[in-house]
Amino acid sequence: MSESLKNKTAIVTGASRGIGKSIALSLTNAGAKVVLAARHEEELKLVEMEIRKNGGQCLVVQADVGEESQVTRLVEKAADAFGAIDILVNNAGYGIFSNVVDTAVKDFDGMMNVNLRGIFLCCKGVLPTMIRQKAGAIINIASLAGKNSVIGGATYAATKWGLLGFSRSLMLEVRDFNIRVVAICPGSVNTSFSDHSKDSDKIIQPQDVADTVLFALTMPARSNVSEIDIRPTRNPR
Question: Helix H segments across the chain?
């Protein structure tokens, strides 16, 4: 029997748009209570309205995942509102693409701060609760760029390669506490981040990633699909 998400509490970072929004909506539709986190509170409020219109439960917390104090506040607010923290979806991230010689140091630091440090801070923030519960799930939204070389994407790829190494090691650290760690690696997804020269009828959709998150979370308790690649069935070019 698969696990139910009813009344589970999930934190979703980068929940204001795109993949994060789809994941948040799908989790609430499955019965979970979701804490919506992102830097842009106005956009989060729009997601909140949509969730509440559909009868779901959620909480909005504005947070920059690269800032330790803001992550601490996020975790505290989630625990205060809903008690247990059962699921963390680390979706926040961004990419600026340029050759290494042309990459500004501030852009390198920014991507490392959000795409890698932010995942570390969020995991570190929720793990004490999950370890006490002896249950939990951490879903890290990585990328196929974490497995493939990308011209003009050295820094972005480095953050995703790092995220995969982090996820694989963390999975081994916490599995005996009944905590799953899953890295999901999509190719290009039809969001504002994607290459819009590709055929939108063939490209992966945000809902496809959300459905993969639900699949990973609802596997039988004895099973953990620790890493999932998502590619379009047909070449979208």
Answer: 18-29, 41-53, 68-82, 105-112, 118-133, 154-174, 206-217
Domain that holds residue 61: 9-228
Active-site residue, from 82, 120, 156, 166: 156
pTM across the whole model: 0.93
**Assigned token pair, 172:** 């081994």
Q: Tell me whether residue 237 is in a domain.
A: no
**pLDDT values of the chain reduced to their tens digit, one per residue, 237 residues:** 346 899 999 999 999 999 999 999 999 999 999 999 999 999 999 999 999 999 999 999 999 999 999 999 999 999 999 999 999 999 999 999 999 999 999 999 999 999 999 999 999 999 999 999 999 999 999 999 999 988 999 999 999 999 999 999 999 999 999 999 999 999 988 876 555 555 577 899 999 999 999 999 999 999 999 999 999 988 776
Return the CATH number at 38.
Answer: 3.40.50.720
Cα–Cα distance for residue pair 111/109, rounded to 1 Å: 6
| Number of independent structural domains in the chain | 1
What is the number of other CB atoms lying within 10 angstroms of the CB of residue 118?
A: 25
Q: Which residue has the tokens 């993969």?
A: 212
Domain annotation covers residue 37: yes
The DSSP code for 189 is B
234 part of a folded domain: no
Rounded-to-integer distance, Cα 8 and Cα 27, Å:
9
DSSP structure class, residue 4: P
Q: Is residue 3 part of a domain?
A: no
Asked if 59 and 73 count as a contact pair (C-beta separation under 8 A), the reply is no
Does the active-site annotation cover 94?
A: no
CA 21, chain centre distance (Å): 10
